[in-house]
Amino acid sequence: MNNWTDGYVETNGITMHYTRTGGNKPQVVLCHGFSDNGLCWTALAKELEANYDVVMVDARCHGKSDGPEAGNDTSAMADDLAGLVRALGLDRPVVAGHSMGATYTELFAARYPDLLRALVLEDSPWMEMPPAGAGETAAAAMKERFDAWKTEFQGYREQPLEECVAKCKQDYPDWEPGTCELFMQAKQELNFNIFNDRLISMGGWQENLPQITCPILEFTGDPELGALVTDEMYAKASSLAKDIERVQSQG
């Protein structure tokens, strides 16, 4: 990390933070999941930096990026990312997103096809939305989910970081050294304005995937071990996308 730099850009009404490995190489932009930050990609960036200029972004309300009181939805995140790509003068990078990052990078690719050359998704939240007429029930379920998350993250804030890290290492003994420290630091720094708009919508992918013109590579794991994407979900997504390929971990 000695040669990595970090900086800020003004985009879509916020100040957005990023970390960059640098160099005159093909560019890759990494977009983290909910409650993480850009540096949670550190282990992967170390693997890629010899051959790629890796840009790790902090989404709004995450890391060192701004978190306005309202408007913190995945639509805004897609527009934030477009502003960052333009501000840094990136040359149609490969854009990768995990979970929440997958959701808003799909929308980014659909809206801004000229700003990227390929899309890499990790465990996309391709859930079915509630049927018509289930509005109040769905809203109540979403509120319950967000209230539970807020309670969970408040608990992280109230514990010493070293205790959170120790529990993380116990839960994830196979993670790369240093990852739990980055992971739990991100949890403690999460801006709670993220909860104001019930932003984590799982919808929209059915509309976004058919509009994406670049190649898509989807990384998935085993749903029995906690991965999101099932065979049924991927079958539906692949029927909608123009150019998509899947790589599935067996462990």
Report on this model:
The chain is α/β, with parallel strands linked by helices and 251 residues long. It has one domain: Rossmann fold (3-Layer(aba) Sandwich), CATH 3.40.50. The chain has 8 helices and 8 strands, in the order E-E-E-H-E-H-E-H-E-H-H-H-H-E-H-E. Strands 1-2-4-3-5-6-7-8 form an 8-stranded mixed beta sheet, with helices on one face. The longest helix is centred in the middle third of the chain and has 24 residues. The chain is globular, with a radius of gyration of 18 Å.
Could you outline the blueprint of secondary structure elements for this entry?
Blueprint: E1 5-11, E2 14-20, E3 27-31, H1 42-48, E4 53-57, H2 74-87, E5 94-98, H3 100-111, E6 118-122, H4 135-158, H5 161-171, H6 179-189, H7 205-208, E7 216-220, H8 231-240, E8 244-248
Parallel strand pairs: 3-4, 3-5, 5-6, 6-7, 7-8
Antiparallel strand pairs: 1-2, 2-4
Helix pairs in contact: 2-3, 4-6, 5-6
